[in-house]
Design goal:
The complex is a heterodimer of chains A (239) and B (173). By secondary structure, chain A is of the alpha+beta class. Chain A contains 8 helices and 4 strands. The chains are: A alpha+beta (239), B alpha+beta (173).
């Protein structure tokens, strides 16, 4: 256990210094107990027979090892403090994280309506254009309206529209009816990256040849889905 | 050697703990200071409050004097600003008229959406469709479909309706 290299000696010396610091306290205690002696002696007393066997070498390895396990209150409290601090820091970090998560984890965050103004404007614009197109027709161009409906509507909305349009198509031809639909208000209630729900207020102007035009109000709840970069209406509910 | 290793690992544990705390704090601070999140929460609160307010403003139990008074008080509670002042001014007259007719109205918001939210001024614009079921004192009940545009204002007691417009035909594009 005799030091072989310079570096090892340094380390051993360091540890001995530490040990000596500690043993001052031990020495004081020993002094109180009525055993006068140097620090070395006090340590020998403390570690008992085991340390005695080591003699010189004990100063380097055995004794500090003994200090570790037999540490007095003075040696233990910084470690306890460090442990408590570590636990407090971990707990605080965890609590902060959970609190932050709770702030974030609300339905409000997944809904981008109005918070993402560009996407909100886009979906409102696409749906407004689509409704204006599919609910406007003249006696001659029902085919064009039908074709645009095939493009702008999908799924359930297409069936809902077909049922509605079947009657209208006949009327348009028979009564020379022209319908023009204007969207007056459109609000987005829910918006995710590929799905949206809107409420749309429309004014519909009916014109029959030779008669005064009449206007009706219509309100639709619309569900739209983003398909190939364009919003397609998949569900329509009259309100 | 064990002493030094232990001391080092002790410091390492402390460092990791401090890092965890700092990360947690940073994540919390991010959520706290997230303007989008605050805006989204205002939006949802405005829509939820606005729907309730609008339903109340379209409802009135005309059974007797007390229920009419309660209904008119609910109207005042759901409104603020100009609408509140107007309802307050006409309260006596409204009560007398409602007592005479004895009709009961029950408003149900079928859909509502916000078209604008201004977090800075605490105002929002809501559009909504309402089904109002009106039961006259004698006769059959009927349902009216109405559409409204309401201006909402944030008050100390939630969002309230400041102005209410029934959007008729040609309600302006």
């Amino acid at each position: 256990m005799k030091p072989g290299s310079g570096t090892t000696t340094d380390v051993v010396t360091d540890e001995t210094d530490v040990a000596t610091d500690e043993t001052d306290v031990e020495g004081a205690e020993a002094g109180e107990a009525g055993v006068p002696g140097t620090a070395e002696r006090a340590r020998d007393d403390d570690t008992g027979a085991g340390a005695g066997a080591g003699a010189d070498a004990g100063a380097g390895a055995g004794a500090p090892g003994g200090e570790e396990t037999e540490a007095g209150p003075a040696r233990r409290w910084p470690r306890v403090l460090a442990g408590v601090l570590a636990v407090v820091l971990l707990a605080a970090g965890g609590a902060f994280y959970v609190a932050g998560r709770q702030l974030r984890d609300t339905p409000a965050t997944s809904n981008k309506a109005l918070t993402d103004s560009a996407a909100t404007t886009q979906v409102a614009g696409d749906v407004t254009n689509a409704l204006g197109k599919v609910f406007s027709y003249g006696p001659g161009d029902t085919a064009a309206t039908k074709a645009s409906a095939q493009q702008l509507l999908a799924g359930k909305a297409l069936q809902q529209y077909a049922a509605l349009f079947g009657q209208v198509e006949k009327q348009a031809a028979d009564q020379k009816l022209t319908l023009t639909t204007h969207v007056v208000r459109a609000g987005v209630t829910r918006l995710t990256h590929d799905s949206a729900h809107l409420l749309v207020f429309m004014d519909q102007v009916y014109e029959r040849k030779g008669k005064a035009a009449s206007t009706a109000a219509a309100q639709l709840s619309v569900t739209a889905r983003l398909r190939q970069g364009r919003w397609t209406i998949v569900e329509i509910d009259a309100r | 050697m064990t002493s030094r290793t232990r001391t080092l690992s002790g410091w390492a544990v402390l460092l990791v703990a401090a890092l965890v705390c700092a990360l947690g704090g940073w994540s919390y601070a991010q959520a706290r200071g997230d303007d989008d999140l605050a805006y989204a929460k205002s939006r949802d609160a405005a829509l939820a409050d606005g729907r309730v307010d609008l339903a109340r403003l379209n409802s009135l139990d005309g059974k007797d004097g007390a229920s009419i008074d309660a209904g008119l008080a609910a109207w005042l509670d759901a409104s603020t600003g100009p609408l509140h002042d107007q309802l307050k001014r006409t309260r006596e007259k409204d009560a007398a008229e409602l007592k005479k007719s004895g009709a009961t109205a029950r408003g149900k918001v079928t859909d509502a959406a916000l078209t604008e939210v201004d977090e800075r001024t605490g105002t929002a614009l809501m559009i909504a469709t309402v089904d109002v079921e009106v039961t006259p004192r004698t006769g059959k009940a009927g349902t009216e479909r109405k559409r409204f545009e309401a201006t909402l204002v944030r008050t100390g007691d939630g969002w309230k309706i400041k102005a209410l417009t029934a959007l008729g035909i040609g309600g302006g594009a």
